[in-house]
Amino acid sequence: MKLRVLGCSGGIGGRHQRTTSFLVDHDILIDAGTGVGELSIAELSGIDHVFLTHCHLDHIAALPMMIDTVADRRSKPLTVYGTEAVLDSLRKHIFNWAIWPDFSTVPSVERAFMRYQRIELGEPVTLAGRRITALPVDHTVPAVGYCLDSGAASLAFSGDTGPCDAFWQALNDISNLRHLIVECAFPNRERRLAELSKHFWPDMLASQLKKLQRPCTIHITHLKPGQIEATMEEISRCLAEFSPNMLQNNQIFEF
Fold first, then answer.
1. Rounded CA gap, 247 and 184, in Å?
2. Any idea what the CATH number is for the domain that residue 88 is in?
3. Which residue in 108, 151, 172, 249 has the most C-beta neighbors within 10 A?
């Protein structure tokens, strides 16, 4: 499997600030933040599957526009995967004819541009030999992380989360874990805000990573613009034993 980082910022502002989205091979998206806008129309047309961690705007912003842009170029519906709570939010609040057309019924139910597919925690979805499994996390809205398993190795992504024992337990069950992309949205001085919004801050992430029993490379994502340097400086101190990397746009992982 090959994963390309389209966006990994906790906000926008400037050429390099694109919100969360990862392109897996050529046909799968993990989240659909503003980073999707980096793709060409031909690349957008080739995406058949979108797996959502949750429905906060920075993770779904490009999804309605993407479907609208390429629907006439596709011969089958785009499948959007999420937990029932995530799909219900999309139906009620996005694809509701008030914010955007309901593309699960356009141009007809039988020939719809988009279809919803419910997923369950811990139950893998297999696409051409690639296994994608939702992982438990704890955020302010119903959310999941994901494990992407090529068979040879796995990459895990936390999505948005605060402390969650079940997440680390799930990671410890992944025998071939090679990469962990984990969020850390705020610096230590914003601990209260991080607690309220259920995100990590460096000190908390350091304490949580002690629960990880699998050796893997750690990559930090979802840093808030304007606080990147301060947060990464604290991460470098707090997590020195883990040698974490800051995730970068257009970074590619092959596993």
1. 11
2. 3.60.15.10
3. 249
Q: How many structural domains comprise the chain?
A: 1
Q: Is the predicted pLDDT of residue 16 greater than 90, yes or no?
A: no
Is the pLDDT assigned to residue 215 strictly greater than 80? Answer: yes
Helices of type H across the chain? 41-45, 57-60, 63-70, 84-93, 165-172, 191-197, 202-209, 228-238
| Cα–Cα distance for residue pair 110/123, rounded to 1 Å | 27
Q: Tokens representing 205? A: 């992430």
Rounded to whole angstroms, the Cα distance separating 63 from 55 reads 11
Structure tokens at 56: 């906060």
Q: Determine the structural domain holding residue 247 and report its residue range.
A: 2-254
C-alpha distances in angstroms, 230 versus 54, 81, 150, 236? Answer: 27, 35, 35, 10
* In the block, residue with structure tokens 């970068």: 248
Q: What is the pLDDT of residue 193?
A: 97
Bridge partners, residue 253, by sequence: 3
